Amino acid sequence: MGIYLDKAKYHTTVAEALRKIPEIVECHYTTGQYAIFIKIQTKNNVHLKHIIDRELQEIEGISRTETFISLEMDFKRQVPIK
To answer: Is a pLDDT exceeding 90 seen at residue 60?
Structure first.
């Protein structure tokens, strides 16, 4: 999910609030379109809607979100950096 902030200065306090939501398993401060990009694992779409409506919308500094749903993971790997 991409997160837009009201102002860039909110990124630290928003990340602290996001850390308290157990379904959020990754949080990245990014360049580009979104200020923060997060990975959320939920049981179903109803559970996801609950997180968006009742948790994310209450965090000061978040102006809006954009959600992407992964239908299938083809692969995941770690690449060693030399």
So the answer is: yes
The C-alpha atoms of residue 2 and residue 30 are separated, in whole angstroms, by 10
**Structural domains of the chain sorted by starting position, each given as residue range(s) with its CATH number in brackets:** 2-66 (3.30.70.920)
| Averaged pLDDT of the chain | 95
User: Exposed, middle or buried: residue 55 (CB in 10 Å: 0-12, 13-18, 19+)?
Assistant: middle
Both structure tokens of 79: 């690449």
pLDDT(82) > 90: no
> Helices then strands (H, E): number in the chain?
2, 4
